[in-house]
Each structure stands twice: as structure tokens, then as C-alpha cells.
Automatic annotation (TrEMBL), chain A:
MF-aspect GO terms: calcium ion binding
Membrane topology summary: Single-pass type I membrane protein
GO terms under biological process: endoplasmic reticulum calcium ion homeostasis
Biased composition (Basic residues): 507-523
One GO cellular component term noted in the UniProt record for this chain: rough endoplasmic reticulum membrane
Family assignment from sequence similarity: Belongs to the CCDC47 family.
Composition skew (Basic and acidic residues), residue ranges: 103-118, 142-155, 473-506
Protein name according to UniProt: PAT complex subunit CCDC47
Region (Disordered): 49-165, 471-523
Species: Medioppia subpectinata
UniProt keyword terms in alphabetical order: Membrane, Transmembrane, Transmembrane helix
UniProtKB/TrEMBL annotation, chain B:
The keyword Transferase is annotated on this UniProt entry: no
GO MF annotation, one: protein folding chaperone
Entry keyword Transmembrane helix: yes
Protein family (similarity comment): Belongs to the Asterix family.
InterPro entries with a match to the protein in the record: ASTER (IPR005351)
Subcellular location: Membrane
GO cellular component labels: endoplasmic reticulum membrane
Pfam families per record: ASTER
Principal location class: membrane
Keywords: Membrane, Transmembrane, Transmembrane helix
Protein name: Protein Asterix
């Protein structure tokens, strides 16, 4: 019974098992088919989307609508594909192929793959081939050849779009095709051209002004000096103005009674430099003429006198060595007859000022108060003050000088008659020379001047005392060393011994402190 | 009629025998102290042109050219022309080299 039961159950069992197996097989087949079909569908869809967005915007009738999230990528890829030189022709080709080969078989695959080889970059070929082979095997299973070929064609194009690893080279803008982008360069060149045009114009203007001044004053100069204009060469070849820079001209005149020489400096505005022209627009200055007359030693008495414009007076009091030393206080020249507050007086000896500021000078000061910058007579001229920390070891050399500084009238660059009107100022120079030559201080004045100068000298000696001591010490040491060497070189031993003894005694004497001898009174 | 150096009868102040030739003031202090602008501009132009060459800055090379021009216009007559000419040439070469290396148009340093 168990056996019969088992046999029946065995048969039933086997029937069940076989049923299960069959169903399993069928399900597996169905599943496989489903998976394959889903895969192929997905792939085709993707490529469809890629195709559509990568290649053309007007293939809506063929393709299904794409999901929005893939759109930006696709458009980016499309842009890339469009810009890249390789993508678009291949895409165009593929589109044509697509239309043609919907009907064709897989024997066209190779052709397409070749095309794709030609158009698409090398690294894509392997992948494409793999995909093609995948589709070949799957198409056998699925059986829809047309679809697969369409898929394949789309695939190659999609492959192009999917992998736009196209490097966009940065082609520099070419000069000839793109002038407008070089506008800064043109601006620079234009600026340079303007600068040089201004240089030539300014230089010519300055030259013209200088020549006009010289022509106007030539007669007066030649009547006062034997030599007008020194060009520095051995034999004076070209008499006249000397050009120092494009805006500074000098003239050296010499050969006159009691005058060593006269240096005339025409310091014009820097019209040749555009930068200076612009800065002058903000901070106006005028053309200036400076006349420095160096007198002979016996031609002038001892005094320091200066009458100047307020601003110049401040500057001179600070900068000039002699004014700083001898004329510390500023005074008004009113009591000497110079009215108005334009001028300031820096004077050492009152008597000198009263004599020098006579009626003629005062009238000229009044008439040309805009033109006259400063007038400075001194017998102690030594230039500019040195910096505080530099201490001179000896008193500076002094010269007897008359210094005049006149400003050109502001419109003299345009109107040359204004320069004619400046002639009286040069006449003032010669008048002053004669006056200074004849003027002698009274006894009190002279004594005062002497006292001042002596005081200055003593002060100077005191401040440099320490320095001079050091210098003297150094000299002594030097002398002793020289002697020693001489002694050593000397072969005579007797002499050497004597000298050494002397030296020893000297040292001893120096070392012992100096004691005062006190006389003690015995109680 | 006297030929002495006393005042002549016609009151002529000229004395041909007392002519003293012009002695230019000390070169170092006189010429350099008055106006240091050309020297500063010369150094600045050389500095800018080296910057332009080394760091490939176009604007630096152009500025060097301008500084060189300013130095030239402000220079003294007895200055060495070789110095100014060499700084000019250096700045021109800086400009040319910057464009040969990179033909793009110039961009100013404080824009983009």
C-alpha cells in the first residue's frame, strides 16, 4: 500500500514538477523578451531625444516629445555640436542616412560605421561598434530589423551628439579683420602723436620768445658789455643766447667796469612738455628772467639787502644762506617810500635800504609791481642753505652779487610788444650796478656790518669746534705715524733709541693728570 | 685819448680787457639739482619696459613709451643723447615684443 501510494504520489509529483518547470521556462522566456524590448526601447528613446536636440530643431514629426530634464544637456550638446566643426556635417550625413536606411538591412551597418569612423573621433568608434554588435544580437532576438537599423543610424548620430568632446580652440582676433577691438592701441598712438605735435609747437614758441627778448635788448647789452654771449668754446663762435633745455636759455655777458660778469637766464614755461602744460593749467606760473651780476671785490660795500614779493620773500628767507643769517626779520618798506603791501623788505643795515630805494627805483617798483619778483643785493652770497645735518668744516666762499628776478607779463607769449615794455627793467639793472659802485656806508654802518660778520664767524667756529678738534687730532696722529715709520726705516740705532725715549717721555707726560701746583703757606 | 683802463671820456663802461669767460656751475649739483624730472622719467621708463617685457603687460610697455617721451622733452641739451635714445628703443621693443607674443588687443589692468 505504501508502495502503491508512493507510485501514485511519485507520478503526481513528477507531473507537478514538470508543470512547474514548464511554467518557469515560459516565464523566463517572457521576462527575457520583456527586458530586451524595454532596453531597446529605452535606448532608442534616448537616442531619439539626443538626435532630435543635438542635430535639428525641426524633426518633431519623427520623434516623440522629450522629457524636460534632458533638454538643457541636449541643447548644450547641440550648441557644441553646431560649433564644433566635426559634428554638424556628420549629423547632416546621419540624418540623410536615417531617412534612407529605415528600409535597409544590417549590411549597411558597416557603411555607416565607416562614415561614423570618418566623422566621429576615434575613441568613439569602439563604443559604437560595441553598441552596433549589441543591437545586431538583440535584433536577431527581437526580429525588428528596420527598427534596429533606424536605431543604429540614430545611434551613430547620437553618439556624435552624446560625446561632443570637441575642443574649441581659442582663435585670437585677427588684426585685419577686427580693427575696432584695438581701440586702446589707436588711442595710445594718437596720444603720442599729440604729444609730439605739442612738443614741436611749444619748442618753437619758446624759441621765438627768447629770440624776441634778445632782439629787443641787444642794443642795451652791446653798449654795456664787451662780450655778449659765451658758447663755451675756446673762440666764441656764436654770440647770443645759449640753449640749456627747450625752455631755459642763458646769456653770459662780460667785460664791463667793476663787473666780473652777468648771467641772464630766461626760464620759460615748459611749453614743449604736455604734462607740464596740463599741470600749469592747475597751478599757474609765469615765464621768468633771472639776472645775476657778479661784482668785483672792491665794487661793493658790506651789506645784505633784499626787497621781494611776499611769497618769494618767504621762500628766500628760508632758502638763501645770507638772508637767513643776516636778515632774520621781515619789514615793510613803507618807511622808505614803497607804498602798498605787495613787497616785503629783508634788510641788514637800514642806511643801505634808504639809499638804494631812491625815487627812481620806487617809481619802477610801483609801475612794474607785477613784473618784479625780487631784487637782492649782497656781499655775502653763498648760495642755498645746506641741509640741517650737513655741517661744513669751513666758512663758505662768498661773492658780491646783485640778483634780479622779473616775471614776464602773462600775455607776452601772444603779444610780443609786452617784451618791449620790459626794457626799463634791464635799464634798472645797469642803474643799480652804478649806484652800488658809488655807494659807500657811513662809519656806523660799516661798524655794524663788521660786527655782524664777526659774530657770525665766531658762532660758526664754536659750532665746528669739536669737528675741528677731531680733524686736528687726526692730523697729529698722521704726523706721528709718519715720523715713526721714518725712524724705523732709519738704520742708525742711536738715533732710534733717542727718538723712542723722547716718545716714551711724551706719552708719560700726556698720561699723568695735570695738577695745579699749590703753594701752601706755612702757618 | 688815454689807453688806460680808467673811465673813458665818452663814459663807455665796456672793458674788453676785463672779459672773463663763462664757467658753467658744477655739473653734479647745478644740472641735476634744478630739475630731476628727466632722470626720474628715464629710470621709470626703463623699469616699466622691463615689467612689460617680463610680465607681458601691454599697458606697462605703452606707459614706458610715454615716460621715455617725457624724459626726452625735458632733457637738457648737454645731456647724453645715447641714454635717452636707448630708453626709447627699449620701450619700443617692449611694445613690439608684447604684441608679437600675444596679438590680442590691450586690456587695461583695472577692467575685466
Amino acid at each position: 500500500m505504501g508502495f502503491i501510494l508512493s507510485r501514485r504520489s511519485g507520478r503526481q509529483y513528477s507531473r507537478v514538477v514538470s508543470l512547474v518547470l514548464a511554467t518557469n521556462l515560459v516565464m523566463a522566456l517572457i521576462l527575457e523578451i520583456c527586458v530586451v524590448s524595454v532596453d531597446s526601447k529605452l535606448a532608442s528613446d534616448q537616442q531619439y531625444e539626443d538626435n532630435e536636440f543635438a542635430e535639428f530643431e525641426d524633426t518633431d514629426e519623427d520623434s516623440p516629445p522629450a522629457p524636460p530634464n534632458t533638454k538643457p544637456d541636449a541643447t548644450a550638446r547641440e550648441a557644441n555640436a553646431n560649433v564644433g566643426p566635426n559634428a554638424s556635417p556628420s549629423a547632416a550625413d546621419d540624418e540623410d542616412d536615417d531617412v534612407e536606411e529605415v528600409v535597409d538591412n544590417r549590411n549597411k551597418l558597416n557603411k555607416e560605421s565607416d562614415k561614423s569612423d570618418v566623422t566621429v573621433e576615434d575613441e568613439d568608434d569602439d563604443e559604437l561598434d560595441d553598441e552596433e554588435f549589441e543591437y545586431v544580437s538583440e535584433s536577431d532576438d527581437s526580429g525588428s530589423k528596420s527598427e534596429s537599423s533606424a536605431d543604429r543610424s540614430r545611434d551613430t548620430a547620437g553618439g556624435n551628439a552624446k560625446k561632443p568632446d570637441l575642443k574649441i580652440t581659442n582663435v585670437p582676433l585677427h588684426l585685419r579683420s577686427n580693427w575696432e577691438s584695438y581701440y586702446l592701441e589707436f588711442l595710445m598712438i594718437a596720444g603720442l602723436v599729440i604729444y609730439f605735435i605739442n612738443f614741436i609747437a611749444g619748442r618753437n614758441k619758446n624759441h621765438k620768445m627768447a629770440d624776441t627778448w634778445f632782439d629787443v635788448h641787444k642794443e642795451l647789452l652791446y653798449s654795456n658789455f664787451a662780450l655778449v654771449g659765451d658758447d663755451g668754446k675756446k673762440e666764441v663762435e656764436s654770440a647770443g643766447l645759449n640753449k640749456e633745455t627747450e625752455s631755459v636759455f642763458t646769456l653770459w655777458c662780460s667785460g664791463r667796469v667793476c663787473v666780473e660778469g652777468m648771467l641772464v637766464e630766461l626760464k620759460f614755461l615748459k611749453r614743449q612738455d604736455l604734462v607740464s602744460v596740463v599741470s600749469n593749467y592747475f597751478k599757474p606760473t609765469t615765464d621768468q628772467i633771472q639776472i645775476r651780476v657778479t661784482l668785483n671785490v672792491d665794487a661793493m660795500d658790506s651789506y645784505v639787502f633784499c626787497i621781494a614779493n611776499k611769497k618769494s620773500a618767504q621762500r628766500l628767507a628760508k632758502e638763501m644762506n645770507d638772508i637767513n643769517t643776516y636778515c632774520p626779520t621781515k619789514k615793510t618798506p613803507e618807511k622808505y617810500g614803497v607804498l602798498g603791501d605787495k613787497f616785503v623788505l629783508l634788510n641788514e643795515i637800514g642806511e643801505a635800504a634808504s639809499v638804494l630805494l631812491d625815487a627812481k627805483v620806487i617809481s619802477l617798483l610801483k609801475k612794474y609791481e607785477d613784473c618784479i619778483d625780487y631784487i637782492h643785493f649782497t656781499d655775502q652770497y653763498s648760495g642755498y642753505r645746506l641741509a640741517e645735518d650737513i655741517q661744513p668744516t669751513k666758512l663758505p666762499d662768498v661773492k658780491r652779487m646783485l640778483i634780479f628776478a622779473f616775471n614776464f607779463p602773462s600775455n607776452s607769449s601772444r603779444n610780443y610788444d609786452e617784451i618791449e615794455a620790459m626794457k626799463p627793467l634791464l635799464q634798472l639793472v645797469f642803474y643799480s650796478i652804478e649806484k652800488v659802485r658809488r655807494f659807500r656806508l657811513s662809519r656806523e654802518g660799516k661798524m655794524k656790518a663788521e660786527r655782524n660778520r664777526r659774530r657770525v664767524e665766531e658762532l660758526f667756529l664754536k659750532t665746528t669746534h669739536v669737528q675741528r678738534q677731531e680733524v686736528a687730532q687726526l692730523k697729529r696722529e698722521e704726523r706721528r705715524r709718519a715720523e715713526k715709520e721714518k725712524m724705523l726705516n732709519d738704520s742708525d740705532p742711536e738715533k732710534q733709541r733717542k727718538w723712542e725715549e723722547k716718545e716714551y717721555k711724551r706719552e708719560l707726560k700726556r698720561k699723568t693728570p695735570k695738577m695745579k701746583q699749590l703753594k701752601v703757606k706755612a702757618m | 685819448m688815454s689807453t688806460t683802463t680808467a673811465v673813458a671820456p665818452n663814459n663807455d663802461p665796456r672793458r674788453a680787457d676785463k672779459i672773463i669767460r663763462y664757467k658753467a656751475p658744477a655739473i653734479g649739483s647745478g644740472s641735476a639739482g634744478d630739475d630731476p624730472l628727466p632722470d626720474y622719467m628715464n629710470v621709470l621708463s626703463m623699469l616699466l619696459s622691463m615689467c612689460g617685457l617680463m610680465l607681458k603687460l601691454k599697458w606697462s610697455a605703452w606707459m614706458a613709451l610715454y615716460c621715455s617721451a617725457v624724459s626726452f622733452t625735458n632733457s637738457r641739451i648737454n645731456d647724453d643723447t645715447k641714454q635717452i635714445l636707448s630708453s626709447f628703443m627699449l620701450s619700443i621693443s617692449a611694445v613690439v615684443m608684447s604684441y608679437l607674443q600675444n596679438p590680442q588687443p590691450m586690456t587695461l589692468p583695472f577692467t575685466n
